[in-house]
Amino acid sequence: MKGKLIIIEGLDGSGKSTQMQLLCQRAEQLGKPVRRVKFPNYDEDSSALVKAYLSGELGSLQQINAYAASVLYSVDRYATWRRHMHSDYEQGAVFLLDRYTTANMYHQTTKLPHEEWDSFLDWLVDLEFQKMGLPAPDLVLYLDMRPQTARRLMEKRYHGDESKKDIHEADFSYLMSCREAALYAAKRFDWQVIECCDGENPLPIEQISQMIWEKVEPYLQQEGQQ
Fold it and tell me: Per residue in 180-193, is it b (16+ CB within 10 Å) or e — as a string?
């Protein structure tokens, strides 16, 4: 019996880490064995080139094309999958992932003209879920936070220190484009979009957590019935 992959996606500053923690706690209270994994996996050497990319060491955001950048993340995911996930997944474990292949579907798509989005998405799906053999997600939740709101939350997180932002976080126009690409991918791949704002203001953390739980709980119950 294979396991399940439940993914939380969202722009930087959308509250993914907080919501992932709350989701894990609630799943465990339900008595479900869940494993939490965050990508990129900065605890592993497989993320070395991702770190180099995000720090700007390899060049600017636009100098590293969508395909090249995606492969850096793909290698990190594959190594983490083989080292830390594969065995438990094959035995039926449920994984709650903070980002996955799905993150590249919008972070890298923005570098391409709109008419090339579908061909890039097709390439990425084929690369990771077919050729590399990574499992496709069972459920993807996209936390839809307006870029302006996400930027304010990031400023609070970094206490106004712009140097702490990576090259993605530092480019506001890029974050705006990412939201457009994410909603495009959500429609194409049937992601569940969680509205996290009331106008320009973020909804209460507890309200967002409840909306997420209502989407995730049926998958955990299915796991218990197998």
Answer: ebbebbbeeeebee
